[in-house]
Amino acid sequence: AELLLTGTAMQESRLRFVDQLTPGPGPAYGLFQMEARTHADHWQWLERSGNDALRAKVVMLLGDEPDRLGQLRTNLAYACAMARVHYWRVRRPLPTAADTTGLGQYWKQFYNTIHGAGTVAQWLASLRFIQSPPGN
Q1: What pTM was computed for the model?
Q2: Nearest-CA neighbor of 19 among 3, 4, 6, 36?
């Protein structure tokens, strides 16, 4: 899950952009570029899932700031947790960490979707950059 989340953040924002540049602000927020509708859906699921332990962990990351959506931009731990909730809801098991192509396919199918512009090849290139940055 750690490698999947790291690759997701790298591909979605290059670990650099906390808001979409054009048109901005949004519609996707944070390093994981989560859209407001997706964020709201995840909260509805957390409220009714019966998984009180998971919900409590996510709530704990919010702190005192009431603007949950805004925290996707400013609270990296919360943004990561919400991306993990996104993948948690997928009923298909995660590929192993050694299966980077499988992780890229998982990201494409369940996060970026067929409607997204990203490709598995781009995700893999993003992951390779993390694992071996230029100059190393």
Answers
A1: 0.90
A2: 36
